[in-house]
Amino acid sequence: MAEGLELRQVRIARGGRDLLALDRRIAPGEVVTLMGPSGAGKSTLLAYLTGTLPPGFTATGSVRLDGTDITRLPPESRRIGILFQDDLLFPHLSVGGNLAFGLPPGGSRADRRARIAAALAEVGLDGFADRDPSTLSGGQKARVALVRMLLSGPRALLLDEAFSGLDAARRARIRDLVFDHARRRGLPVLMVTHDAGDAAAAGGDVIVLAGDAPDP
Amino acid sequence: MAGPRVHRSRLAACLALALAVLAAPPVAAADPDPADWPGVENAARGQTVYWHAWGGSAPTNDFIAWVAGQVRARNGVDLIQVKLADTADAVGRVLAEKQAGQDSEGGVDLIWINGPNFAAMKSAGLLFGPFAGALPNWQFADADCKPLESDFTVPTEGYESPWAMAQVVFMYDTADIAAPLADMAAIRDWALTHPGRFTYPQPPDFLGTTFLKQVLVDITSDPDVLQHPAEEADYAAVTAPLWAYLDALTPALWRGGRAYPATGPAQIPLIADDEIDLAISFSPGEASTAIADHRLPPSVRTFVLKGGTLGNASFVAIPYNSAAKAGAMVVANFLLSPEAQLRAQDPAVLGYGTVLDLARLDAADRDAFAALDLGVATLSPAELGMVRPEPHPSWMSRIAEDWQHRYGAGR
Amino acid sequence: MDDPNPRPRLAFAPRLTLLVMLGPVAAGLWGTLLPAFGHLPAAGAWGPSLGPLRMLFAWPGLGAAVRLSLTTGLLATLLSLAIVTLLAAGWAGTRPFRLLERALAPFLSVPHAAVAFGLAFLIAPSGWLARLASPWLTGWSKPPDLLILNDPAGLALTAGLVAKEVPFLLLMTLVALGQSDGTRGLRVAQALGHGRVSGWLKAVFPRVYPQIRLPVYVVLAYSMTVVDAALILGPTTPPPLAVQVLTWMDDPDLTRRLTAAAGAVLQTLLVAGALLLWRGAEMAVAALGRRWIEAGGRGRAEPVLRALGLAAAGLCAAAVTAGLAGLAVWSVAGFWGFPDALPQGITAETWMRLGPGLGRAAATTALVALAATGIALLLAVLCLEAEDRTARRMGPRGLWLLYLPLIVPQVAFLPGVQMLLLDLGAHAGPVPVVAVHLVFVLPYVFLSLGGPWRALDPRIGRVAAALGAGRWRVLWAVRLPMLLRPVLTAAAVGLAVSVGQYLPTLLAGGGRVVTLTTEAVALASGGDRRAIGAYGLAQTAAALLPFAVATLLPALLWRNRRTLNG
């Protein structure tokens, strides 16, 4: 069984024009960086992988995750986690509520709470479960977003400019945290970024898209 | 009385049309027999009666609510008032149901009605009956001295049952007018010397048209011609004095005749605000009632004309497709009861004239009527004097239409 | 090629919504058009014939009624737009403007009839203003015989419409300003040396107006065809065309319905003509405006214009507030003659007497409003969710369709709807009333919810899905809670719209569905100011309460969530 995230002959087109083509397997724990100018289709590829390709785009090929074809699965069943530049925490839920949202159902109330508390402690946010997300600093929010995503039990990780919103000092810390967790859990990671520093920190392959397509 | 507003409209055309279009209604097998009153009462129990009645007066609505309580307790009939801005709405509804082929289970069970609306419905076969003469309380009705069997010259023939008497009186503020005015000419002369202090509801409002008719019957030399259709008379010649009267009066009216109160009751705040000093009413007790609930100043009194004023009865009728005819008859009968009539005449409640002949009541009921304090501004039955019969409806329709051309929309 | 993201697209939702909203309008128009050309088998008339049109043109008041419809409609729209424009130009972004914004919801929710009653008592020659100034200032011991209310030129009616339409246009302008980055446009213009007002007019107004164009058309069409406010404030010799159409419709003489239908068609053409005229004027003003901008003038009389805008808007607010206060005083008044500024006594008699009836009418009002608003919210949410799922936004044509029921005159299609209901054998009652209310409630709910819904970051949905949440869970557990405040506001708008409906309730309810509004307008014909005061207040309260809930509930629920409680 081929583990990791596998993009087989994926071609994405817009209005009949090819935007990008990719054929690549990302092994567990490997980080592949995707770079290229705006409009090259980097974010569109991530949307394709999460099952939310916008209309107007068409795609061929298939996606396999740990050997299973997920091309036709709805977004919520794919088990692909994604982090954006913004934390996108749900403002109506507490920090703990955000984490519980992604935690797969099952287990007693106390058990779930304990898992959430432990996960928060792991990223240095001990006792933050009842906090309002809007009272957190940027770095704290980014860490909550990471924990939320990890608790949902993803089998692969997508990063869409995930560190662009942070200042230089925090950026490096959060980046290391994310890569560290991904490696420990053996998650294949596909990272989209503009920043050469991100690519260097990832240490894996860098794919540069041509980007001759017009800006959407 | 504020009353159901009788409609303008070319009545003859309306009747002819209605006759042509609407065949006689099929008699529903389940219709109750008015002659079998115990049977009617049995059938009525548990029925819901929708009474479509003009809803522009809170005291009237309260009275109807009281009636609802009584018939529920006595007869197990649920009475619900459907408040209309205009009685024609209910007529139109029954017509529309007939057009749609809904010949039973109709939405209207009882209508407060008189005049052209009654004539239209009766001739179009939209009414159930005859039933009025079979109501047990009809025995008390004063059909000899009051126009209870003819409605605007149209014979009722038992298709509607009376429940209140109305008669024209004039309300005046004694702070501004020293003594009653004798006739319509005196009213005009007073208005000319007091410009802007008198008005009347805008025709085709029921009371506004009544004012025009009151002028006509009072100043015409030959009132009898008004008892026959206008087509049979020299309309222009008969109405010429009316238009001369209005031509003289209009510039001296409130707002110079460029605006009018919409209805009879809308005159009451005008008197209270001291915008006008004199107004027509169709209810001898209306002024006393309004004084009692602070809507008129206590200085208001009423008068009638030396030559008598117009009067008519208010009726209730039952549509041919009513879903609750028995219940509707029970309500009509209760309205004729001494108890209901006494309450309606009480100025603290309604102040409507009774349709009963007090001589036919037993002593206790008679004493109760005699003991009634009619109120500071209400004339006694003797003072109200002679009731002049309503002209044939064709006069009203044509006069209202001509008024539109001369003083209303065509001004 | 395969659909890469299989999911239910809810494609039925927009279609169902259009059907619910436009079906009655189209059917009603058809039901009006036939009798207008002499086809009403129920009245024994088999068309086509030009008879009804001839009868219409034979009515002596037609010229004046048509003129009234045009002048009151155009003048009310022009004044409302001018006041809102001056106010926004002179004050947008300032403290007084923000205060007005806060006070907007209550003014929006006051029903037309209540505004008209209040204004009528305020400005009549024996009204509150005259009483306050008499006799010490005016010397009047009796009210002067002045034609202020029901004036043949329709000025009182125009004033009433302006007081009610300014809040509506202001709200629409605020929404447009939020979407067109007005503040920065104004800063740039000011940096280039323009005054506040002229800078706003030149740099911001051209961006805002296209977004409030349809609301302006709604105001124009509504002002030309209003019935309840016209019954209270409008002239009667003759009345505006829409009122006369209703009078004909009520006539027991069936042939008058043909005339009414012809009048309704004429009214529709008048509205269409006025809209075209307005569109032409828009283009002319745009051309003149471009020349003005190119001329580079820096604008004059800035302080005067600013003061004028604030004063006019303040006057509208004051008139509505004082009018409502007048209704409140009347509802507890003992005898109150001229020129007393206050009643001689205060009594609870009116409320005691009307209490039970008020309670029943309020319950019916609530039932109808909640049902219509509930259905409207459901459809609006499904449509917006369908937009998200197909990522297809409503285009300009969709927006026009949404506004159509608000632009087509009510008297043109509601009578046709009544006949349709009868033909279908549907009994008049609460169900048809809810259905007809829905026609008017849906557009407002949709417009009110659409903006905030579309402004929500679409990535929120993607993140939630990536966390394992299905479509419906994303809707229930993420979108709707985050949008609680806009959802409740949209509901409040819908409820207020439903509470204020007069003609639809009357015609679809067959008189059996008694709401606070039908009862208030019915009482108006009796002139009992105490009862009118009580019902007007109850009507206003019924419309206001949902706005209070929409403000307080999120504050309560999200008291610990700063982002949603700002």
Fold and architecture overview:
The complex is a heterotrimer of chains A (216), B (411) and C (566). With 216 residues, chain A is of the alpha/beta class. Chain A folds into two domains: 5-79 and 154-208, Rossmann fold (3-Layer(aba) Sandwich); 92-137 and 147-152, no CATH class. Chain A is built from six helices and nine strands, in the order E-E-E-H-E-E-E-H-H-H-E-H-E-H-E. In chain A, helix 2 packs parallel to helix 4 and helix 4 (138-151) runs parallel beside helix 5 (168-185). In chain B, a hairpin with a 2-residue loop joins strand 4 (150-151) and strand 5 (154-155). Chain B folds into two domains: 11-163 and 313-377, D-Maltodextrin-Binding Protein, domain 2, CATH 3.40.190; 169-310 and 389-406, D-Maltodextrin-Binding Protein, domain 2. By secondary structure, chain B is of the alpha/beta class. Chain B has helices at 11-21, 37-44, 58-75, 88-99, 116-123, 184-193, 206-219, 235-249, 267-272, 286-292, 325-335, 338-345, 363-371, 381-384, 393-406; strands at residues 48-54, 78-84, 110-113, 150-151, 154-155, 160-167, 169-173, 278-281, 300-303, 309-317, 387-388. In chain B, strands 1, 2, 3, 6, 10 and 11 form a six-stranded mixed beta sheet that branches. A three-stranded antiparallel beta sheet of chain B has the order 8-7-9. Chain C is mostly helical and 566 residues long. Chain C has helices at 12-36, 51-58, 62-91, 95-109, 112-123, 128-133, 155-180, 182-191, 196-203, 205-225, 228-233, 241-250, 255-295, 302-331, 349-390, 396-407, 410-423, 430-455, 458-466, 471-482, 484-500, 503-509, 516-524, 529-557. Chain C is globular, with a radius of gyration of 25 Å. Chains in contact: A-C, B-C. At the B-C interface, helix 1, helix 3, strand 2, helix 4 and helix 5 of B face helix 15, helix 17, helix 23 and helix 24 of C.
